[in-house]
Amino acid sequence: MSTFPTSLPGGTWTLGDLTVTRFGYGAMQLAGPAVMGPPADPDGALAVLREAVELGITHIDTAEAYGPHVTNQLIRRALHPYPDTLRIVTKVGADRDQQGGWPPARRPEDVRRAVHDNLRTLGLETLDVVNLRLGDAQGPRPGSLAEPFETLVRLQEQGLIRHLGVSNATPEQVAEARAIAPIVCVQNMYNLAHRQDDDLIDELAGHHIAYVPFFPLGGFSPLQSSALTAVAARLDTTPMSVALAWLLHRSPNILLIPGTSSVAHLRENVAGAGLPLSDGDLADLDKIGGGAGPLGR
Q: pLDDT, tens digit, for every residue of 2-42?
């Protein structure tokens, strides 16, 4: 019988009936430049995925639009047949165009096609979790998600999806989704400097719904803050390590999926997320985003 590792920072969380490590891995950076095409070093990409599993990570985040198709194919090549404990979370709701854009693809036929594409490229009969991606590349946008989300619910009823979530969503859209069917996670942009979802995180924690921040280290523009730099210098570590550790301290329902295409960087991220932070460290860091307290809101 498989057991979950105790060495990864943050412990575990349950997405519905699926247990995952709170420290996960986001596969987006395994694709080529601008998340288009194959990686320059395919063997290196495969090595990162295998190292993630060797480290005990049981939560990998991906999307058919990454590449497109590239990250799913790499995951299958590196890890199939998948370990019993591994959970792969994917998303639908956006395509890629020839200019590298992310046009919406949320018509019912788009959603059905995307789910079947994910099943095929990942080599699965059922997807563990599917997030409906909303908004656009600039962030969430208001509007009803009923039609595409109800399409996912029907696919779930057919046994093609275990659990549902939403991504790039407003609080109102999260509430609308929950009124239609249970969700196990919300995946939005959030980090030390971008704290717009503080209230949402706390609300979701009360309902045992995971919050999964994308761009936890600032994305394509790394976090820049004198307070962050000062705390990192005081702890003799890197600002990115501090930023990851802060997220795990922020709330027990936060799951991390930092991405990298480097085995060494993956190991650094794991080590960094386990950094102990004092109350003083947390207070200094909390000032960056104007929050009201990472542990006691």
A: 344 447 999 999 999 999 999 999 999 999 999 999 999 99
Which of helix, strand or coil describes residue 226? helix
CA angle 249, 255, 258 (to 5 degrees): 100
The answer to whether 156 touches 116, Cβ cutoff 8 Å, is no
Tell me if 91 sits within 8 A of 123, measured CB to CB: no
User: What is the DSSP pairing of strand 25-26 with strand 185-189?
Assistant: unpaired
Reply yes or no: is the peptide bond before residue 68 cis, omega within 30 of 0: yes
**Each residue of 6-40: b (16+ CB within 10 Å) or e?**
eebbbebbebbebebbbbbbbbbbbbeeebeeebe
Give tens-digit pLDDT for 214-231: 988 886 667 878 889 999
DSSP of 67-107: BTTHHHHHHHHHHPSPPTT-EEEEEESB---TTS---B--S
The Cα–Cα gap between 253 and 249 comes to 10
Catalytic residue (one of 66, 82, 190, 211):
66
Tell me if residue 66 is catalytic. yes
Contact criterion met (CB below 8 Å) for 17 and 52:
no
Question: What would the two tokens of residue 245 be?
Answer: 């550790």
Tell the burial category of 279 from Cβ atoms under 10 Å away from its Cβ (0-12, 13-18, 19+). Answer: exposed
CA-nearest of 276, 209, 259 to 13 is 209
Instruction: Determine if the pTM surpasses 0.85.
Output: yes
d(CA 49, CA 29): 11
